[in-house]
Design brief:
Layout: H1 2-37, H2 44-73, H3 82-115, H4 120-148, H5 153-159, H6 171-212, E1 224-227, H7 228-253, E2 286-289, H8 294-343, H9 350-365, H10 367-377, H11 380-395
Antiparallel strand pairs: 1-2
Pfam families: 7tm_1
Biased composition (Basic and acidic residues): 220-247
GO cellular component, one term: synapse
Length: 396
């Protein structure tokens, strides 16, 4: 029956909204606190994450409680008042616009960070423009929403308006929300797709270079050898020269003639010594050096590049998760809005469609609790900060 269906949707809406309120407040406050506390997290991309967390926090604190009140009280009270209903409509449109525009800007800046990692000054300038621009556009859209909010599903439910008497239905969703969502989705898929392509090409280049450019191992017998016996003979010869010079000086001393002292410089001192490896020799032993220290530097470079490629590969996977999450939570609302012109002509299904679309709105609000997990918790820097917080909390 219709009453059982309404009760089932009410339970589902309450569960989704309560989870969004508590989990969203906790997650977004944690993200904002971590960035404000840790200086290493205060980057341009994380500034956009803080902007996203701020808009999601406002949604959890204002929009979700208002929507929950409308769902719970709407079955017993026909009209909850213009102030409550308009406030919910404005807060929903504001948070939606800020969230969608910020997600699009995050995808663009993440691509720039990978494709052009050294252009940090330009990135900072863009972020300083992105954040005020998103809020300005969102405020303008939400202000315009006041004039067209009276036919949205939640407003209709809030005021107890019969859908049959309306000349239009969900104008905001059809002409504002859906275009902004599709534009944001196009930007997100476009930039994260380019990130995936860049990372894949970079990884392939690294492994190709690693298998073809590394120098071959040094052949036996080609290393630099120092014969201890020859070194000992050379030393004995030098000592004999010194002894002979001293004898000559003493013999000439009887004739009051002094010769300048002779200092013999070993040949070893004028040869170039290796700068990075010390050589220790003992008589009768052989000491070898690598033919070139380039083997080590190229090997280390390859290992660093390989580790970087692994990190970029994880970033590409996270990019896929972001796109999937974005589509999964928003698609029910978008589909219901697009289907409204074709399904509202049947009076028997109007109430069911109204309940379905209200639940779709609640699912879209759930992104406020999922975004901190998708964008921040999977970040190694954020995880490190969260672990420190957990350790500090347990130590008290």
């Amino acid at each position: 029956s219709q009453s059982s269906l309404n009760f089932a949707f009410a339970i589902a809406n309450c569960a989704v909204l309560l989870f969004t309120c508590f989990a969203g407040v906790f997650g977004n406050v944690l993200v904002i606190w971590a960035v404000c506390r840790q200086r290493s997290l205060q980057t341009s991309n994380n500034a956009l994450l803080v902007n996203l967390a701020t808009s999601d926090l406002l949604r959890c604190v204002i929009d979700c409680p208002l929507l929950l009140a409308i769902i719970l009280w709407g079955y017993n009270i026909n009209d909850l008042g213009s102030v409550l209903c308009h406030t919910q409509a404005v807060s929903f449109s504001l948070s939606c616009c800020v969230q969608l525009l910020t997600l699009a800007s995050i995808s663009a800046e993440r691509y720039q960070a990978i494709a052009h990692p050294f252009k940090t000054s330009q990135r900072k300038r863009r972020v300083k423009i992105w954040i005020p621009l998103t809020w300005t556009l969102a405020v303008l859209v939400s202000s315009f929403c006041i004039t067209i909010a009276e036919d949205t599903p939640v407003y209709v439910k809030c005021r107890g308006i019969r859908v049959e008497v309306l000349t239009s239905f969900d104008t905001f969703g059809l002409y504002i929300l859906v275009p902004i969502w599709f534009a944001s989705l196009t930007v997100i898929i476009g930039f994260y797709g380019r990130i995936f392509i860049v990372v894949r090409a970079h990884t392939k280049k690294i492994f190709d270079k690693g298998t073809s450019s590394l120098p071959p191992p040094a052949k036996k017998g080609k290393d630099v050898r120092i014969d201890g016996k020859q070194l000992a003979d050379k030393t004995n010869s030098e000592e004999e020269n010194k002894s002979k010079a001293n004898n000559d000086t003493r013999w000439l001393g009887n004739r009051s003639v002094a010769l300048p002292s002779i200092s013999v410089i070993p040949e070893e001192t004028v040869e170039e010594r290796p700068t990075s490896h010390a050589v220790k020799t003992t008589p009768g032993c052989l000491s070898s050096l690598p033919s070139s220290t380039g083997e080590y530097s190229q090997g280390n470079l390859f290992n660093r590049e390989r580790a970087k490629a692994g990190k970029e590969g994880k970033l590409a996977k996270r990019s896929g998760y972001i796109v999937i999450t974005f589509i999964a939570f928003w698609m029910p609302l978008i589909i219901s809005v697009l289907m409204n012109p074709f399904t509202l002509h049947n009076p028997g299904t109007v109430q069911k469609i109204l309940e379905v679309e209200t639940f779709a709105v609640a699912l879209a609000c759930m992104t406020a609790a999922v975004n901190p997990i998708t964008y921040a918790v999977v970040n190694p820097q954020f995880r490190s900060e969260f672990r420190q917080l957990k350790t500090k909390y347990k130590s008290k």
